[in-house]
Amino acid sequence: MKRLAIFVGIACVLVAAGCQRPGQNVYSYSEVGKASEVIFGTVLAVREVDVEGQNTGTGALVGAAAGGIAGNQIGHGGGSAAATLAGVVIGGIIGALAEQAATNRKALEYTVTLQTGATITVVQDHNEGERVLQPGERVMLQVVGGTQRVLPATDLPKEIKRPAGITVTD
Fold it and tell me: Looking at the whole model, is its pTM more than 0.85?
């Protein structure tokens, strides 16, 4: 029974670790120190969408282990082996379903017309405390590698002077 408690504890830690996702104010460790291209635009529309989470197999593994340990506590001899096997199968299925349910989430899909004239959509996670950008609002599309993020740009100037010491020639 002690082993079962350890496996359940590990599963809870893994689920809790996946709760905070990159959004407006949360960055992935892999984004730190990387330059981002910024393209300005205007939000045309925003809507809530469902994101199907990633099933890594960890839930199935933890569930199978917990089910096997629980099943092993039932019966003796051949009955114990059958109960262990049934516990592994049932626990694996329940663990996989639990992981999938824990990783499914809501997100926001922004439709943005960029200053280039192109119109794009970006689906991004929406964490607690982040405001929803509204249609008509000036935004910036931050591009890092293959990842894009829509951020508010209402407080940024629309025109600036070239920084001192910079010369651009054509």
Answer: no
